TrEMBL record:
Gene Ontology molecular function, alphabetical: adenylosuccinate synthase activity; GTP binding; magnesium ion binding
Upper classification of the organism: Bacteria, Bacillati, Actinomycetota, Actinomycetes, Kitasatosporales
Taxonomy, superkingdom: Bacteria
Catalytic residue list: D13, H41, K139
Cofactor note: Binds 1 Mg(2+) ion per subunit.
Source organism: Streptomyces tardus
Protein name per its UniProtKB record: Adenylosuccinate synthetase
Similarity section: Belongs to the adenylosuccinate synthetase family.
Names of the cofactor(s): Mg(2+)
Length: 428
């Protein structure tokens, strides 16, 4: 029985929510291993639409155990409000497991995230303002607060004091903000302890036992490959590792235990926030993709930047993640174009380049080299098999597959749960 990783192959708005949910019924555990409530997964179940930010998508499936792993940064207020929001809609959330080693996002992290962005001015990253970067920074600086600290009041106070020592100097002297009182933070955090204690456990033990017993475990990435702090378009990235290796460190599972890595790939490209994006469109086509695709960020409501499919990026995602499959989403959005440009290489200062340049300067100079594939006009939202797709849509999918370096095993043809063409099973 497989342990699978499911992750974004582009900049992270590819529709992971739908893919995870599709697998949810046959999966025993869905695990988040990095990121926090900067994620936005939209899952459509029947006529109900759910926007999840911190919780794993598997929470909507009654047979599945959702897990928040050690690599996630958790805003306890957000977690509790997301849980109660689902409870009000009749979703049972009692099976959730939360790692005691996960780091907590506190009010001072959110504050530092916002003032840092403001201070950067034109050079800002365009973060979601959820405190993600500062929380990971504290983790690496070894002044972070973990979930388990909620259950030892004196340790909690000592750690919060240590973390605020420097931060208050920064806030007051550099950013001209009011200092934050450690006691106030501790009081707020302790207020969450009782409500969270029932979920907390050693998630690495649970997950390794589950895999050894032959259960199906799905590791669900937030964000995407190009937002990875190591492999993405640094510094315009998030502060964690959404690539496949992140599943190992962020859940405490060895690489030998993972046998499938599925990249979610949108049939075109989108991005939220700042940073290079070679195929970005500033014309009517870009506007059409945004409108037809409903391209608004789930977390911040910002318009997504839109562009044509970029095969250089897709190939890169195959490489750094060791992808075994792709799940291609939103093919239906491309219906109606006479021809569809696909970026097959970049031109960088007069050179043709077919692999993602490692140099940031080169990537900023990259101009897309397009091939033009014939489009289709038939409505494809009802297609249930690959053969039911119009010939040119089939050709588009096959071309993307060849350029991207891994088989396309499923295709999204509409937002609904059943609007998917499954070509190969992910669970063999
Ligand atoms: P994630 O962050 O990668 O999970 O993606 P989001 O949830 O932020 O965005 C995905 C959006 O695309 C949601 O509104 C989905 O309902 C929608 N979606 C997913 N797959 C398809 C598809 O195949 N076709 C269409 N039209 N919409 C889709
Ligand atoms: P899902 O899980 C798209 C982007 C932000 C910003 C950068 C850093 O829905 O794919 P952060 O708050 O993480 O420090 O912001 O990353 N970003 C996302 N873009 N989808 C996301 O999540 C994102 N999470 C963060 O816009 O550019
Ligand atoms: Mg999203």
């Amino acid at each position: 029985m497989p342990a699978l990783v499911l992750l974004g192959a582009q900049w992270g708005d590819e529709g992971k929510g739908k893919a995870t949910d599709l697998l949810g019924g046959s999966v025993d555990y869905v695990v988040r291993f990095q990121g926090g409530n900067n994620a936005g997964h939209t899952v459509v179940v029947g006529d109900q639409k759910y926007a999840l930010h911190l919780l794993p998508s598997g929470i909507l499936s009654p047979t599945c155990t959702p897990v928040i792993g050690n690599g996630v940064v958790v805003d306890p207020a957000v977690l509790l409000s997301e849980l109660s929001g689902l409870n009000e809609r009749g979703v049972d959330t009692s099976k959730l497991l939360l790692s005691g080693n996960a780091h907590l996002i506190t009010p001072y992290h959110t504050e530092v995230d916002k003032v840092t962005e403001r201070f950067l001015g034109k050079r800002k990253i365009g973060t979601t303002g959820r405190g993600i970067g500062p929380t990971y920074a504290d983790k690496i600086n070894r002044v972070g607060i973990r979930v388990q600290d909620l259950f030892d009041e004196s340790i909690l106070l000592q750690k919060v004091e240590a973390a605020l020592d420097v931060k208050n100097q920064l806030l007051a002297k550099l950013y001209n903000r009011r200092a934050i009182k450690p006691e106030q933070v501790v009081e707020e955090l302790l207020g969450y302890a009782d409500r969270l204690s029932g979920y907390v456990c050693d998630t690495t033990l649970v997950l390794n036992d589950a895999i050894d017993e032959g259960r199906v475990v799905l590791f669900e990435g937030g964000q995407g490959t190009l937002l990875d702090v190591d492999h993405g378009t640094y510094p315009f990235v998030t502060s964690s590792n959404p690539t496949a290796g992140g599943a190992c460190t962020g859940a405490g599972v060895g690489p030998t235990k993972i046998n499938r890595v599925i990249g979610i790939l949108k049939a075109y490209t989108t991005r939220v926030g700042a940073g290079p994006f070679p195929t970005e469109l500033f014309d009517a086509d870009g506007e059409a993709l945004r409108t037809i695709g409903g391209e608004k960020g789930v977390t911040t409501g910002r318009d997504r930047r839109c562009g044509w499919f970029d095969a250089v990026i897709a190939r890169y995602a195959t490489r750094v993640n060791g992808l075994t499959d792709f799940f291609l989403t939103k093919l239906d959005v491309l219906t109606g174009w006479e021809q569809i440009p696909v970026c097959v290489a970049y031109e960088i200062d007069g050179r043709r380049v077919t692999e993602l340049p490692y140099s940031q300067t080169d990537f900023h100079h990259a101009k897309p080299v397009y091939e033009y594939l014939p489009g289709w006009s038939e409505d494809i939202t009802g297609a249930k098999t690959f053969a039911e797709l119009p010939k040119n849509a089939q050709r588009y999918v096959k071309a993307l597959e060849e350029m991207s370096g891994a088989p396309i095993s499923a295709i999204g043809v509409g937002p609904g749960r059943d609007e998917t063409i499954q070509i190969n099973s992910f669970l063999d």
